[in-house]
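Operator note (shift B, R.M.): manual run for Methylglyoxal synthase requested after the automated queue skipped it. Running by hand, logging everything below so the morning shift can see what happened. Input copied straight from the record, untouched. If output looks odd, do not overwrite the archive copy; leave it for review.
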Amino acid sequence: MLNIAFIAHDRKKDEMVNFVIAYEHVFVPHKLYSTGTTGTRIMEQTSLSIQRFMSGPLGGDQQIGALVAQNEMDLIIFLRDPLMAQPHEPDIIALLRLCDVQGIPVATNIATAEVLVKAVERGDFGWRELVHKYKPGAAE
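Run finished. Output pasted below as returned.
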């Protein structure tokens, strides 16, 4: 089971919902997280259960970032709007930096999201299970 987070800027929320609907069967067995409104919209249109954090500008990006910093997140799908300035841009950059530091795959557009979800579907994320198994403090 993977820990997967969904984040979408306002003008990308419809695209995220449609994407998750298309791949709902892939997401069912995993633990899902999301920022506030994105998670609500996904749950309204699917049968998925999602642990929601605050809205991104109110700290949701940082809450997901805390899980990344602890190496507790396996995949983030973050549909960013590159044509709209975001008031919480420093939080976004910090989250992406943490993903790079921890080696967490992150998709910032629908094309990359599809490639990563196809990898999840094929079982190509086994390496993340090893990360969890051998994490300091993990049960032997």
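Quick read of the result: The longest strand covers residues 3-8. The helical segments are 13-22, 24-27, 36-45, 60-69, 89-102, 110-122, 126-133.
Leaving this for review. - R.M.
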